[in-house]
Amino acid sequence: MSNSAIIAPNKSPAEGMDKSDFRKAMSAFATGVAIVTTKYEGELQGMTINSMTSVSLQPCQLLFCANHGSTTAQAIKARGLFAINIMAQHQMQIAQTFARYHPTRFETCAYSLHDFDLPIFDPALAAMICSCAQIITSGDHDIFIGNVLSCITHPGEPLLYYASRYASLAPQT
Predict the structure, then answer these.
(1) Mean pLDDT over residues 162-169, rounded?
(2) Cβ(38)–Cβ(82) under 8 Å?
(3) 10 band by pLDDT with thresholds 50, 70 and 90
(4) Among 76, 83, 155, 172, which residue has the fewest nearby CB atoms (within 10 Å)?
(5) DSSP 8-state secondary structure symbol assigned to residue 125
(6) CATH number of the domain that residue 110 is part of
(7) CA-CA distance, 46 to 19, in Å (whole number)?
(8) Distance CA 112, CA 153 (A)
(9) Domain count, the chain
């Protein structure tokens, strides 16, 4: 028998779903790990995300989701530009550092200011410089859709997130 939630017909979906059950189910989905960054009014901002995906090839677009209260999200809204850094397996410590707000987190890692004065981690597997095309509010998050202006790639293995912990690809046999 499966452990699934049944929503009563007289309840809205939001009332019937247990957040801990939803988190547990979502943790079964392995994702890549990225850090979205920007610079606004001289302040560097960044946060770890695993909610990034491609949207379109014509034009090249991607999206990511951020909590309404995030200082990084507010800075991106104000500036309109951001970078997505796809993290390499050896960059787990950086991802952990940027998973929580701390005002001096950029002092703990190697980065450079790239196109449009945006922080890029040295060397992320890939970095995409984006302009904000659209912001959609849904629930307690904003969905940022960005037009990709340029990309940088480096060889390496990706950092993954699965079952609420960081992971890596198994060696191929």
Answers:
(1) 90
(2) yes
(3) low
(4) 172
(5) S
(6) 2.30.110.10
(7) 26
(8) 15
(9) 1
